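Sharing in case it's useful to others searching the archive later.

Someone asked me privately for the predicted structure of TQO small subunit DoxD, so I'm posting the question and my answer publicly. Question first, with the sequence:
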Amino acid sequence: MKTVHIKNDAGLLALALRLVVGWTYFSAFWRRTILADKLDPEVAGYIGEKFNAFLPNALGIKPIIQYLVENPDVLWINMVIFTIVEGIVGLFILFGLFTRIMSIGVFSLAMGILLGSGWIGTTCLDEWQIGVLGIATGFVLFLTGSGKYSVDNYVMKHHFAFTKKKWFSWLGSGILPIKERIFPKVVLIGSLFIFGMTLMTNQVFHGGLWGTLHNKSVKPKLEITSGEIQNNILSFDVFRTEGVDVYGAWVIGIHLYDSQKNSILEYTQEDLSALNKMSIANYYVAKIKPGKHSLVVPLGAKAKLNLEHDVLSNLPNGIYTLKITDISGAYWVHQIEK
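And my answer, the predicted structure tokens:
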């Protein structure tokens, strides 16, 4: 019996990888535009608010995220562009069209996910895993290009003129024009870089290499700053930096104590749910606002609260303690000098 030898095709071997990562990115476009309207700033589930949740612990790109969430119009434009890019990259990767340049898109989008939201994940390291695997996948697809079942292969097989150009090997598929003796070094250096990025972010975001493991997505954390008492107004900034990203912290109590721990001012759960929205000056797209039974503080939201009360008018100078209590029982304190 005659044995048939089939030449291995690296692009063909990466077919499953290409299809899965292609759908992963295209499905983001599909979800936001076809299955639901997630690009409307006035609708619940707006992608800009999700992006805002990345802000507190983003790595390296925090100033960019902060600028965008402080400027809603610019944020919306960028969210639309980002969604379109994800759709194009995903679709082209699915069909294997200009695979190598699209793999750079996969790499870049995954890097953005990793640096922006690699710290998020309630039950496991969700966003971190998506980011590092996306980076590795983008690199592999750049090396392999697309194989037998792809548009790149079809146009090469039918000898389209542009496939003869050197640039097509860099942007599409086929044999990479890298010298044989250099190619293994390119693979090694690229792989070690990605592995180093994986280890570094795993440690920074989660303490995954040494020290104490931590997950900033499990428990809510509020940061209180800029507290002051002027005339009859207590004002302070509150910023939620940790906790589950899909729902807010529920503040059920705000108290002000003097140095002897006597209660000066108290806002109960009912008071906070009925709080005048004019008392809340939000900084970002994600907004702190009164809910049905509490004051709701989404992840990444920051606002200045101005609480007006007559009892504050004649307070003597001294040190006062502000305490904010979450429905979970967690609380945070901040000292104010009057």
